[in-house]
Design brief:
The structure is a single chain. The protein contains 9 helices and 7 strands. It has helices at 2-21, 27-54, 106-117, 147-170, 176-187, 192-204, 215-222, 232-239, 249-255, and strands at residues 68-73, 76-81, 95-97, 102-103, 133-136, 212-214, 246-248. Helix 1 runs antiparallel to helix 2 and helix 5 (176-187) packs antiparallel against helix 6 (192-204). It starts with a helix and ends in a 19-residue tail after the last helix.
Length: 274
Amino acid sequence: MRRCVVLVCLAIITGVSSSQHNGGENPNTIDEDIFKILQDDEDYEELKEVEEEAEESPCDSIHCPAGKECVEEEGEGACVCVRDCPEEYDTRRHVCSNHNQTFQSDCSLYQARCWCEEGEGRCGQERIRHAHIEYYGECRQIQECSEDDMADFPRRMREWMFNVMKELAERDEISPHYKQLEKEAESDQSRRWSNAAVWQWCDLDKHPRDNAISRHELFPLKAPLHSLEHCLAPFLDTCDGDTDHMVTLEEWAKCLELELEELLDKCEGIQNMP
């Protein structure tokens, strides 16, 4: 379009030169014509961009789970297994699954899981249907958690949560509500562990905020510490008492050996607690 405008302008300018030599049309009138053509061209381009933006894709309103992406098929959006995962050569970005199998990336793990869920021939092992990320980095040999270590782990976990909460409060990285809980825990030792436990649970219950922690929501707590703390994974598994892959506040209190009443009604912005 702009090429045509340029040609038109050249033609008009050539005409201007001829008319000036021949005592023809007023140059001012010709200038106005040129600017009008340019303005019309810009208006056309803007209208075209608006029309293109207005054309919504069927995938715009579709949210696909991990391992899937939306593709347009016959005017409809559909979730299919991710077709290509980017190559990842940095071993720090590799992931270890709950089956102690290393994948090149989280995309690769979820893609493989999708293949198994969809019954595709590319499914290498049926167990991958239930695979999830245990921690980042290549799989390594994790020391087995002994009975004595597991028995002592709730205490260690409570103390660790309090120390993290205290540090974040000092760095002003938690909300005033939880800073107040930390302050209470400092002045009243009976609230030391319960306040830290409820802060951690409420902090994890975000996506969505539904009064229960899913495996996905546990990931920020579990992944960085799994290879450093050999009892963490089995401990968190025991927190899911009914094995529904969700940890309620009641289950959280029980596995940390705390009274539920000490944790109720302390989450910021949480209502209808069990």
